[in-house]
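G., the chain you wanted modeled:
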Amino acid sequence: MLSNIVQEANLTEPRMSLFPHGSDWDRSREHAGLQSNGHDDMHAGEIETSILLHAEPSLVRPGYEKANHDAKDRRFLLTLGMKEYTETGVIGFPSYATAEKGRAVLASLKVRFADHLAALGEPQQPRYGDSELRA
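Predicted structure as tokens:
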């Protein structure tokens, strides 16, 4: 739905960007060396827990290391909601999370965000130390 709104907003000129896009998350996962993928690690899993361990570790609940929950087949998620697939709210693998992975994910997303700004015609600021993330 949001992608349609962004596309319509940009009919005459670039005004809006949808960020992060699925490919931004995929590249950030790859850059950070995450073990899980975006489908299997949907909520409170490796990526989200890693970001919190880096940015605000006090928000990570004790016991996350043993809270993995695999719910690959979620075909009725939008109809039935998450409660049909998890009792805890976790769909993913928080035990794989580390603060270093969280730092790397955020660093990669920062570079990807600059790319979105550039597509909108915003001037680029030098990003020292991030050149290896451009690939």
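Residues 52 and 60 are 7 Å apart (CA to CA).

Shout if anything looks off.
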